[in-house]
Amino acid sequence: MQFQQLAYFVAVAETRHFTRAAERVHVSQPSLSQQIRALETELGTELFSRARGNIALTEAGEALLPLAQRILADADTARLEVQELAQLRRGRVRLGATPSLCTGLLPDILRTFHDMHPGIRLLIEESGSHGLVRELARGALDLALVVLPLPRPSPVLTTVELLREDLVVVSSAAGPAPGDGRTVAVADLRDEPLVMFRHGYDLRELTVAACRADGFEPSFAVEGGEMDAVLGFVRAGLGVAVVPSMVASRARDLRVTPFAPQSRLQRTIALAHRADVAPSRAAREFQKVLLASHQRGLAAAGTEDTAG
């Protein structure tokens, strides 16, 4: 079994088309088909069903696909690790993060890392924690910022808790304040139309779970948006939304109302990577910058608490 054959197999599996797969890997279609046949012969089973031009994975193909993707990703990571020049003048970091973290936490950290290592390419993948765990497991990401607890804990991942962040309610500055005007309880959301994120957002699941734990189903004024869209809908007065405090601090034209102590909602942010593969040097350097930034944030918070 050759890397080239696995690459051809993955290309066909992902495009479900032999000609498009051949174009992707820059070989002729007959050469690609020949290599796929050779792979099937070696494995002793067909990997694709080719009925009437419709390309579908067989059961054996379904089993091989995630393994092949992981093998190719690991080989790519190893190649980059060997090729990195001294003093991190070249390399890449494939970082996954939930959309709210891309908006709230990452911009300053990415700027710091880029200033320190301008030759390192930063590739960012936005997704919910479930999708990020899947991408980490198959080797498509080096690191990911996820929300704990993970929707499906994975034994192949290692997580390091970074911070616990309060959630707050944002509303239009032109409308009435939710709750008592100073704080809001989860129960107060019963009578508030919510602007809700699309399925797959950790914030959606957390908010709905909190409402159900309080004995009611939330009412959605509009749903299905990404972070910027949700803030825009709130700004237009369509409803209120539950968002992380880091995101709310950047939305200066919205009213921000914290939850009352007895209704406090938080989320736990962690850095995850595969336990069975050492991160590349560039990824390790990014992890250092991220953890150092977190420690500075804790120190600043402690100073403010002492001063207060």
* Biggest beta sheet attributes: 7 strands, mixed
State the total count of DSSP E strands: 11
Percent of residues in helices comes to: 40-55%
Using only C-alpha atoms, the radius of gyration works out to 23 Å
First CA to last CA: what distance?
Answer: 65 Å
Average predicted confidence as pLDDT: 88
Encode the helix/strand succession as letters: HHHEEHEHHEHEEEHEHEHEEH
Q: Structural class, from helix and strand content?
A: alpha/beta
* Strand portion: 15-25%
Shape: globular
Given as residue ranges, the uncertain stretches (5+ residues, pLDDT < 50) are 303-308
Number of H/I helices: 11
Description:
Strands 3, 4, 5, 6, 9, 10 and 11 form a seven-stranded mixed sheet that branches. A two-stranded antiparallel sheet has the order 1-2. Strands 7-8 form a two-stranded parallel sheet. The chain is 45% helix and 23% strand. Helix 1 crosses helix 3 (29-43). By secondary structure, the chain is of the alpha/beta class. It is globular. Residues 303-308 have low confidence and may be disordered. It contains eleven helices and eleven strands. Strand 7, helix 8 and strand 8 (219-225) form a beta-alpha-beta unit.
